[in-house]
Amino acid sequence: MILQTLPLLALLAASPGEVVDRLAATVDGEVVTLSEIEERAASELRRAAALPAGAERDEAHSRALRRAFDQIVAEKLLEKQAKVLQLEVSDAQVDAAVEDIKQRNRFDDEQLDRALTEQGLDRAAFRAQVRRELETYQVMQAKVRGRVKVSDDDLKNYYQTHPQEYGGDEELRVRHIFLPLAEGASKADEAKVRSSGERVLQRLKTGEDFAAVAREVSKGPSAQDGGDLGWLRRGTIQKALEDAAFALQDGHFSGLVRAGPGLHVVKVEGRRVGGARSFEDAKEEIRNRLLEEQVGQTRQQVLEELRKGAVVEVKIPELRG
Length: 321
Prior knowledge:
CATH architecture of the domain at 169-274: Roll
Number of strands: 7
Distance between the termini: 27 Å
Strand content: 5-15%
Largest sheet: 4 strands, antiparallel
Number of helices: 14
Order of helices and strands: HHEEHHHHHHHHEHHEHEEHE
CATH class of the domain at 169-274: Alpha Beta
CATH topology of the domain at 169-274: Chitinase A, domain 3
Radius of gyration: 34 Å
Helix content: 55-70%
Strand order of the largest sheet: 4-3-6-5
Structural class: alpha+beta
């Protein structure tokens, strides 16, 4: 915005009848106008304006302005550091970043422009924003280099204390016996099939081998394999069978379970954790996660250090508090 680069006196030199943009603050002598802050806070200000009149709306309005102002201050301080460190973002880097954004969002040029318009941006403003973000990234890379370190012990500790992320899902080795029974079958037909099922259960209770009985009486496609369904996890079989199987202890079998077009008897022959990732397989992902967390924390420290060394003068009450 042109007003950002004008000296302070130029802002105050308008004629008596001319509307002058309000001076909101200065950062190391560089002007920040109220319109610049309001433009940055536009979406939050719209939400605040939708609140009922009163103290809550006033505070939401001021909070939106303060948050936008903090962002602008951070950008100006980082831009200044980029110059001090002689860091420069080329047009080619901006082009590449824009293309990456388009690819990740599956946008063509027209779709990108439409999305920008919805956010109140044109292509030039968007590229300027991307350039600022790349400059920020370069400054932070230079500033945090040497401060951010992740040891192998850090990686192992995270892996061991987050089993839910790398432990995988419980799986059961299941066999079953299937006795067909059409849905809507007559009571007589159902009684006949259930009677056959009870005889099967009695044979199993006397100690007959489940796989042998399955080969003999099961009518399912796995009968020749002794009813072996392999390793199963939740969500891969009918809910009634899943509930029955996961309620069993290893080596135990269920009663007759009605599921789909028949009756079933299921047996659990083993348990394991499937899809688990070893430490070696997961450690680089963990390293990146911990580095990102440290960079985020260090970024705030860097910004606080830069702000302490800057002269920030607030000129309007809305930014105080």
